[in-house]
Amino acid sequence: MAENQQAAGNDNQNQPQFALQRIYVKDLSFESPNSPLVFQEQWQPQVNLDLNTSHEKVSDNQYEVVLSLTVTTKIGDKVAYIVEIQQAGVFLVHGIEGPQLGQMLGAYCPTILFPYARESIDNVVNKGSFPALMLAPVNFDAIYAQALQRKQQEAEGGAEEESKTH
User: Fold this and answer.
1) Continuous segment of H or E residues that includes residue 123
2) Domain holding 125: CATH number?
3) Is the per-residue pLDDT at 10 higher than 70?
4) Could you tell me the sign of the dihedral formed by the alpha carbons of 133, 136, 140, 143, in that order?
5) Residue 96 is part of which domain span?
6) Using CA atoms, how far apart are residues 20 and 131, in angstroms rounded to an integer?
7) CA distance 9 to 63
8) How many structural domains compose the chain?
């Protein structure tokens, strides 16, 4: 019976594992360069969202994933506010490698982090005395797939240039 329990324990160690260990704000900034005059403008903002993700291995099975968002809101040509946040998380990832690991760190983890970043952005915008800003959901799977496709095209383009020079 002890052999069966030991074998089961070995099976569990070989199973892929994923766990969220911590979520935190790594960096957050808010600027309203044209206040208080911007409050006198009619509120018809143009909102621009830039986002980026990165990850770093912090130990054998732990990765820090950072979702960086910059929201620039303008009224006409005047900047109403700029919010920048780096929402981060530490994730335990064991037994997942190659393309699956890339997908996990490049799409799945940012999907987990996004609601936290969105809430922080909304809170800081409200504290700046602006109307609530609830960012629309983001399809990180599609963004990750586009990034992979772009890298593949660049690699193929580089190979074509290399063959032309020889």
Assistant:
1) helix 109-127
2) 3.10.420.10
3) no
4) negative
5) 17-155
6) 32
7) 24
8) 1
